[in-house]
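Re-running the complex after MR caught last week's input typo. The corrected sequence lines follow. Everything else is unchanged.
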Amino acid sequence: MPEKELPQLNTVIHSRVRLAIMSILISSKEVDFTFLKKSTDTTDGNLSTHLSKLEEVGFIYIKKTFRGKKPLTTVLLTDKGKEAFREYVLTLEQILPKSH
Amino acid sequence: MEARQAQEDIRLIKEMIEKTKKTAAKSGTYFILWTIIPILAILGMYILHHLKNYQWIWLNWVVFTTVGIIITVILLIRRESKENVKTYVQIAIFSIWKACGFAFILLGFIFPWVGLYSYQTISVMVSVIAGIGVYATGGITEWNLLKWCGALWWFGALLMVMVDYQYRTLLIIPLLVFGYLLPGIILNRNYRQKGVSDA
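Corrected-run output:
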């Protein structure tokens, strides 16, 4: 009998930092770059790379404004990103053993 | 993908969500402000009553409420300019208190002014609304103390119905102390531990 094929996870989200970013964004309307960097424990360059990947596929929207004279980068989750995250979690639940 | 990796992903998701919820710190300054403002207004009311200047009691409440609203708006604007995360929890709490604020104005000023009910009923009405705001905030933040404080406001409203009207407004003072000030002080202590200030 062939083994049941395991569901495939979204490869864009399937990275520790990008999953952390998406998890933070799912509970927030918007988050700034500094908060994301602190929460994901990454460097500016590393975080920017991951954000670019998420932005390329349309999962997030990056807003650049000013707070007074200081530049402010804010990140928001798009509807596509919310749906992708929801599917990612559903897929994880399918992978987990039934007892979980 | 193995189940172990999936479990690790779920753990990371939960950790990030919890961290975000906790880091979006909640300040108790608004609770403290809205303890001081009504107490000052009650004091003003009793002074005017003692001086038999009854016609100014309404203005006393309007002035203090207006000052309270202005200070609240200023604090909100300053907080907004410093916060680096806007969670749905914060948005929900803000909406609840905005709704309660409009209800306070309608029930505390507009309806008695148009003669819908006597001014003697105001303190009962506002206590019920305060209870809704506090309890709902406790529910959203999963903080049981706030839920108890909300229930206290409702208990206070019940007590007010049973006492003579001249004592009703005085009953608001212990409700403010235990239903607003106490949680406000606790929140502010936790907020300052995060190294944030309203200044």
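None of the earlier attempt is carried over here. Chain A touches chain B through 26 residues (CB under 8 Å). DSSP finds four helices and three strands in chain A.
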